[in-house]
């Protein structure tokens, strides 16, 4: 995401002004701190860092990351600052960036930011309260992606108090809203303004240079496949405590490759500097060679304390074939994780059993009294199993077996009205059980052996699942339009759940094209728990709501959970270095870009 860390904030009994806000107690870093602990304040500056696709994107056709149409270039987040930014060694904090002062109202219904008088856009203009208001109004407008409007829906308005002060007013009492407001990307009202004073519509902005206040600006780009960002020589914030020791590269270049195989071979050939590997088999078998033997290239695993998020085969409930929970549970029984982990993953992974695994946000055991208070009003509409322990994931280690799991799946399918006859699994109308698993071509090679196991198991049940890969642009377009049956998605981890859960699982988002609710989930019980989650006033209330949400999602079997690792696998040139102290909560690519540096050449 382009936003800074968006986390809840605890309110004092009266309004206060501060350099930072924290969820509980005090921020780790006091007023006047010099830098974050996980950076090197004396890191050398300079050099060109060359990177590859950070995700499945294989080409780009715009510089506007806030609209729905098209594919935005990678790295655009470096162009935009926000009013606040998070610390990577705290789960719930936000420190002033564009803002040098933060004041939360006593009733929690507004937050006021005072802008740093030094803050400047890349065109040299000062950042003003009018620009902040313009950014919010634009992101909430129909010209921005629908997910933007949904994300900021509880921010009622931005009010310009004076040229250097802006107040965000909220629709509801939600402890996360000051962080949502503070993490909003800010851009100049002149972005898209023509010389004659007319304006290009926001959703029509393509290769017009964004006007942000970040440390980098766009240098060169070519054919939608390469882009170079260069350090803005006028960048205003280099000596801010939240920026000391960061942004150490003079230039950052992205080269986009057509698929994962080409990308990895390009790295070993020396075409780019850092490779983050997400495939265990590649890490063991393919991230090797003469340059690793000589020490020119290094591979290392870096531990982290991130929550895992949820990665899995998600089912689109908008499709009739997936609407029965027994069908969804049966599809989960067909995945043989233990075999995959042994044969393909070199036993490097753990099975996901929660949307919040690896954290205290994961539901365990029986529901607590606080969870029951949220779930009991919906008892008549919920499976009684929700009030028991979370479901265990299927296991094929002895005495378990895939055959036994498929027998359970066959019974569930029969109970849902699907029986095997005339060479296929059919419903009462005689229609065969057929669906498509959609993926993009850049990932098809790595997923082929995984899909072979899964599709073969489904075939044994009489289910015809067709694996189809398409170009990423078409893939994204189909996801935005909810035009798919099943696909693999990773819901990113969060340390403190909040408004992003509404976008992923809220009923309103289910009908909003481009939203994160790809599952198509519309559940009054889930909506009620989400309301309690975003309105939680204490850590205990937040945990109860998150645990309840986890139970509802896991017992709904909307996703066939996959696997996770508790380390980042990074291969890199031996000319690169990183700070001695690792952050606790971080993504690999962003950490490299923001805090690594090139060793001085002697």
Automatic annotation (TrEMBL):
The Solute-binding protein family domain covers: 96-507
Keyword vocabulary terms for this entry: Signal
Q: Which residues form the signal peptide?
A: 1-17
Q: Which GO-annotated molecular functions does the record name?
A: peptide transmembrane transporter activity
One annotated Gene Ontology cellular component of this protein: outer membrane-bounded periplasmic space
InterPro entries from the entry? Answer: Peptide/Ni-bd, SBP_5, SBP_5_dom
A single GO BP term for this record reads:
microcin transport
- Which domain of life, per UniProt? Bacteria
Known PANTHER family for this protein?
ABC TRANSPORTER PERIPLASMIC BINDING PROTEIN, PERIPLASMIC BINDING COMPONENT OF ABC TRANSPORTER
Protein name as annotated:
Microcin C transport system substrate-binding protein
Q: Which organism is it from?
A: Paraburkholderia caballeronis
């Amino acid at each position: 995401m382009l936003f800074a860390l968006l986390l809840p904030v605890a309110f004092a009994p009266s309004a206060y002004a501060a350099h930072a806000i924290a969820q509980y107690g005090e921020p780790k870093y006091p007023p006047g701190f010099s830098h974050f602990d996980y950076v090197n304040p004396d890191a050398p500056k300079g050099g060109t860092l060359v990177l590859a696709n950070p995700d499945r994107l294989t080409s780009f056709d715009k510089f506007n990351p806030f609209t729905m149409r098209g594919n935005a270039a990678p790295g655009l987040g470096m162009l935009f600052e926000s009013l606040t930014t998070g610390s990577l060694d705290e789960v719930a904090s936000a420190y002033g960036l564009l803002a040098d002062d933060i004041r939360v109202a006593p009733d929690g219904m507004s937050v006021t930011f005072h802008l740093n008088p030094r803050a400047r856009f890349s065109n040299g203009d000062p950042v003003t309260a009018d620009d902040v208001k313009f950014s919010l109004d634009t992101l909430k407008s129909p010209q921005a992606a629908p997910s933007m409007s949904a994300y900021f829906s509880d921010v009622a308005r931005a009010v310009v108090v004076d040229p250097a002060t802006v107040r965000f007013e909220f629709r509801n009492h939600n402890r996360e809203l000051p962080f949502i407001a503070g993490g909003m990307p800010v851009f100049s009202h002149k972005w898209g303004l023509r010389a004659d004073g007319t304006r290009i519509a926001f959703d029509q902005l393509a290769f017009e240079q964004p006007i942000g206040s970040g440390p980098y600006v766009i240098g060169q780009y070519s054919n939608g496949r390469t882009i170079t960002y260069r350090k803005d020589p006028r960048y205003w914030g280099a000596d801010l405590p939240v920026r000391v020791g960061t942004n150490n590269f003079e230039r950052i270049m992205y080269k986009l490759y057509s698929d994962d195989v080409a990308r990895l071979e390009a790295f070993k050939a020396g075409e780019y500097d850092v490779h983050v590997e997400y495939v265990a088999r590649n890490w063991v078998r393919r991230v090797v060679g003469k340059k690793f033997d000589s020490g020119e290239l290094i591979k290392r695993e870096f531990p982290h304390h991130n929550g895992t998020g949820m990665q899995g085969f998600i089912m689109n409930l908008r499709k009739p074939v997936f609407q029965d929970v027994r069908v969804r549970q049966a599809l989960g029984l067909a995945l043989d994780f233990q075999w995959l982990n042994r044969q393909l993953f070199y036993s490097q992974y753990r099975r996901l059993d929660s949307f919040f695994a690896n954290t205290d946000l994961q539901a365990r055991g029986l529901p607590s009294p606080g969870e029951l208070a949220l779930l009991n009003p919906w008892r008549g509409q919920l499976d009684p199993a929700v009030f028991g322990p979370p479901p265990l994931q299927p296991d094929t280690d002895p005495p378990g077996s895939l055959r036994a799991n498929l027998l359970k799946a066959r019974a569930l399918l029969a109970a849902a009205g699907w029986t095997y006859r005339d060479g296929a699994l059919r419903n009462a109308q005689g229609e065969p059980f057929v669906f498509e698993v959609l993926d993009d071509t850049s990932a098809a090679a790595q997923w082929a052996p995984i899909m072979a196991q899964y599709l073969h198991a489904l075939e044994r049940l009489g289910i015809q699942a067709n694996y189809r890969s398409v170009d990423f642009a078409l893939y994204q377009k189909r996801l935005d339009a909810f035009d798919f049956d099943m696909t693999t998605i990773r819901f990113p981890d969060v340390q403190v759940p909040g408004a992003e859960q509404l976008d992923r699982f809220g009923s309103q988002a289910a009908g909003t094209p481009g939203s994160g609710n790809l599952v198509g989930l519309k559940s009054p019980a889930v909506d009620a728990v989400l309301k309690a989650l975003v309105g939680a006033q204490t850590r205990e209330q937040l945990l109860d709501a998150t645990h309840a949400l986890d139970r509802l999602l896991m017992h709904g079997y909307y996703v066939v959970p996959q696997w996770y690792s508790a380390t980042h696998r990074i291969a890199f040139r031996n000319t690169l270095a990183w700070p001695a102290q690792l952050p606790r909560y971080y993504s690999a690519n962003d950490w490299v870009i923001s805090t690594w540096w090139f060793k001085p050449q002697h």
